[in-house]
Amino acid sequence: MLRTLCAGVAVVALLGLATAQDKKAATIKITVTESSFKDTIVKVDGVEIKGKDGIRVFTTPALEPGKEYKFAVEALIEPNNYTKISRPREVKLKAGDEVTLDLTTEDKKLDKIVVRWVPTPVDIVDKMAELAKIGKDDVVFDPGCGDAVMLIRPVKALGAKKGIGIDIDPKMVKIAQEKAKTEGVADKVVIKEGDVLNEKDMADLADSTVVLVYMGDDLGARMSPVLQKLLKPGARVVSHRFGLGDWKPDQTVKVKGVDGDEYTLHLWIVKDKAKK
Ligand SMILES: C[S@@+](CC[C@H](N)C(=O)[O-])C[C@H]1O[C@@H](n2cnc3c(N)ncnc32)[C@H](O)[C@@H]1O
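Above: the input record for the complex with S-adenosylmethionine. Below: its predicted structure, written as tokens.
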């Protein structure tokens, strides 16, 4: 009896040893673009992986042979002090694998871009409105509206028919809605929570005649196809400082602000699609 028990224990121990020996780690070699502003942060399953010169290497714990494992990898890139890009990917691997993952290129479906709130001065909003020739029949849209200065000002001071804004930050949406109320234009200025990278959140562009925007080059490039698709011919887009990817502006002007600074404004006029 004792002999059988000992033999059993030995077999289990041997099996355990064999399994432990078969278990193997895997590695993921991740390539990122380092930002000159701030090191790119790479996380695997939420834990930061340190490294330098655009390379991060993650070694998994010992994995069961033959079984597939999934790891969530994310690069957090700050190309400048107002833009944050999150680049998430899923990596599937097995014990012993050596996987490489290129996080230097964008995936339009997966990447998120958020720009922090920096308001446009009121006198510059007026110059943008002038460039867009805003009048009483215009519906003004601001993708990333912040406190809605680019909507409240055209409606209140220039008699624009309506203002529509979206912002990804619920706090900004609340601030903008309160401001529209305080300024007595809540019936004409509509603010919604939304992401400019989600075409559904941009649906109001179809009924807008003017877009005033201040969003950064990365978001501008990503937004550009949606603006061109949804806006009707004749609609005007005026951007404070930044471009819209490879959509070349019809006019670029430099204006002086009351603060003494020089501001660059770009104007695009949406062409008749058939004549393009
Ligand atoms: C530079 S501020 C401009 C605010 C306003 N348009 C102005 O010029 O005063 C950018 C705003 O866009 C919002 N934002 C950033 N990323 C966004 C995104 N992906 N979708 C919608 N809004 C976003 C921010 O919360 C911020 O309020």
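Notes for the reader.
Residues 26 and 96 are 5 Å apart (CA to CA).
The pocket of S-adenosylmethionine is lined by residues 113-115, 117-120, 142, 144-146, 149-150, 166-169, 172, 195-197, 214-215, 240 (CB under 6 Å).
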